[in-house]
Backbone:
């Protein structure tokens, strides 16, 4: 938790409960300890999507397909999502869930390590949602920026990493390398001439970077 518990609770209580497949996946994720976007981040994605009306979205880190299904709701007409996942078990689960949601024609899962897969992609995306291994964010960045269209939005999740990014006192030893890499990543985003970045302290921290 990176903000006061009571503020978080207040914000969460403002959010309408999910229904249908999203509700099912939230319950599955909770029971099986699968990390999915926090409700307040899900809400932010929905609002940004309504503003942006994306035709193409690229996601790094599919897990069980929860955020892909959520993002499919904000696509423009005939919009498509490519989502990358390297863990076979998750790929299978995501495929089942996407089929259940009748979104096979909208969401394309690409199996493999995002670092390798990104190099093979050549489309332009209106939104890139980065939610894979946090320690790899700096390596993903050049490829994500190459694939992001001008005026596109790069959304990076878990950017404050349980508050460790902002305070050395919170850093546990086994997370030192990830923290170092995430700090470097944020520095790069915030100092890039090509981006305008805002860091938002909701969920586990989200960075919104607009490509000029
Ligand atoms: C936080 S979960 C994604 C949650 C999902 N975006 C959601 O909100 O429903 C991160 C996922 O990224 C995958 N992942 C991590 N590093 C990856 C990489 N280098 N390439 C592909 N997938 C990766 C993990 O296997 C995991 O399933």
Residues:
């Amino acid at each position: 938790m990176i903000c006061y518990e009571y503020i978080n609770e207040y914000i969460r209580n403002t959010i309408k409960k999910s229904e249908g497949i999203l509700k099912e996946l939230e319950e599955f994720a909770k029971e099986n300890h699968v990390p999915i976007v926090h409700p307040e981040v899900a809400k932010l994605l929905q609002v940004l999507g309504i503003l942006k009306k994306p035709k193409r979205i690229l996601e790094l880190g599919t897990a069980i397909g929860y955020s892909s299904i959520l993002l499919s709701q904000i696509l423009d007409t005939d919009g498509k999502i490519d989502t990358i996942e390297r863990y076979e078990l998750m790929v299978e689960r995501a495929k089942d869930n996407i089929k259940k949601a009748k979104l096979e024609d909208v969401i394309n899962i690409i199996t493999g390590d995002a670092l390798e897969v990104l190099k093979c992609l050549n489309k332009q995306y209106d939104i890139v949602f980065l939610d894979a291994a946090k320690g790899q964010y700096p390596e993903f960045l050049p490829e994500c920026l190459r694939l992001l269209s001008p005026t596109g939005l790069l959304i990076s999740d878990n950017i404050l990493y349980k508050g460790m990014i902002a305070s050395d006192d919170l850093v546990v030893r086994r997370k030192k390398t990830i923290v170092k890499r995430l700090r470097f990543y944020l520095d790069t985003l915030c100092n890039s001439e090509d981006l305008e970045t805002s860091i938002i302290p909701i969920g586990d921290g989200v960075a919104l970077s607009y490509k000029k």
In short: The chain has one domain: 5-211. The longest strand covers residues 148-157. Helices lie at 5-14, 20-32, 39-52, 66-72, 88-100, 114-120, 137-147, 176-191.
